[in-house]
Amino acid sequence: MKLEKITKKTPGSRRYYEEACAAAHALDLFGERWALLVMRELMLGPKRFGDLKNDLPGISANVLTQRLESLEAAGVLVRRRLPPPTSAQVYELTEWGYESEPIFQAMGRWAARSPTHDPTLPFGAVSLLMSLRTMIDPKRADGIDARIGLRIGPETFCMRLVNGQLTAERGTIKDADVVFTGASRMIAAAIYGGQPIEVLEAASVLALEGDRALAQRFVGLFPLPSKAEMPA
Asked: What's residue 82's pLDDT?
């Protein structure tokens, strides 16, 4: 059977690997700087251009436009306009685009072992939600059936924990058993940094509503892997 090249790249300054290896093709699709982070920010639902730019510190409007166009051309995301009265244009991952979440999870688990990882750097809301979905220990979560809400700045998120699995979506918090309010870094400090909830509350950097016993159990469901050793 003769194999034929079925895709063509648009001429330009960008370089492609031009390999049949699927991993190389994946890098053709999202290997440029910022492309993966654009995809990450859309993993919990569509966003407007301005919201994407605000949530990606350091990216220029020009680069963001380029990455959105290249990801759209690759079939990873689509543009659509919200119905009235909003009528705003948003960017949204395609069904195939959403299938990339395991890539982020694998990278996150691997990079969490990096001895040079700096947890004090900026940490966005979507990053926190995706890290929770990645790091949750199903054995520790066994038997919990709960709804957890997060208020992070102007955004609210609803999480459902059942059968050791955590789902999350952006939207109005409804019927939550417990709600955490604070910056992403402060919520992460309770979950990953081992900071007692009461200490963070006393410092007015974290607020808690609802089932405190559930909150205490929830923050212990996300053990971090041991750090890799640096070569001698």
From this structure: 86
Alpha helix positions (H), the chain: 22-30, 35-41, 49-55, 61-73, 95-98, 101-111, 125-135, 184-191, 197-202, 212-218
Reduced to 3 states, what is the DSSP secondary structure of residue 203? coil
If residue 149 lies in a helix (H) or strand (E), which one and from where to where?
A: strand 146-152
**Cross-strand pairs, 155:** 152
The three-state secondary structure class of 10 is coil
Domain 22-99 sits in CATH at 1.10.10.10
> In terms of C-beta density within 10 A (0-12 exposed, 13-18 middle, 19 or more buried), how is residue 48 classed?
middle
Indicate the CATH number for domain 120-218. 3.30.1050.10
Q: Rounded CA gap, 30 and 67, in Å?
A: 9
Domain definitions of the chain by residue range? 22-99, 120-218
- What's the predicted TM-score (pTM) here? 0.89
What is the phi/psi pair of residue 171, to 5°? 160, -175
Using the 8-state DSSP alphabet, how is residue 43 labeled?
T
Q: Does residue 211 have a pLDDT over 50?
A: yes
Instruction: Give the pairing type, strands 47-48 and 89-93.
Output: antiparallel
Question: What is the C-alpha to C-alpha distance for residues 230 and 207, in angstroms, rounded to an integer?
Answer: 38
